[in-house]
């Protein structure tokens, strides 16, 4: 049902909707009921948003730790692969990890192997976890670089 105002001499335009008489204040608890529904929704939505944000941050930390591992392995292998280098790849990689790890890459180990043709450096470790008692997948990055030789 549509309620239409009575047209007076100054109101000759299209009919307008108005509130029927006596409807104001008929259901005073309705507004409170709607407000309770919005708080129930926020009880579900807010923790879900926090979990999603923490997961995004955790994936970013894991990717950063992986990047640190591969960068340090490459730096150590490059330092040892140069012509007439006195530096071992394990030393160079450990030095790079000490500078770059910043607590993001934890419990790391460095292994290296060298042949006449190439040097291989492997960095293994774990990324920092924001969630207590939860272990992220282990990080293992291997870099192989050919050694430099003087060819007359």
Automatic annotation (TrEMBL):
<keyword id="KW-0472">Membrane</keyword>
<feature type="domain" description="TadE-like">
    <location>
        <begin position="39"/>
        <end position="77"/>
    </location>
</feature>
<feature type="transmembrane region" description="Helical">
    <location>
        <begin position="43"/>
        <end position="65"/>
    </location>
</feature>
<keyword id="KW-0812">Transmembrane</keyword>
<dbReference type="InterPro" id="IPR012495">
    <property type="entry name" value="TadE-like_dom"/>
</dbReference>
<keyword id="KW-0614">Plasmid</keyword>
<feature type="region of interest" description="Disordered">
    <location>
        <begin position="1"/>
        <end position="34"/>
    </location>
</feature>
<keyword id="KW-1133">Transmembrane helix</keyword>
<feature type="compositionally biased region" description="Basic residues">
    <location>
        <begin position="20"/>
        <end position="30"/>
    </location>
</feature>
<dbReference type="Pfam" id="PF07811">
    <property type="entry name" value="TadE"/>
</dbReference>
<protein>
    <recommendedName>
        <fullName>TadE-like domain-containing protein</fullName>
    </recommendedName>
</protein>
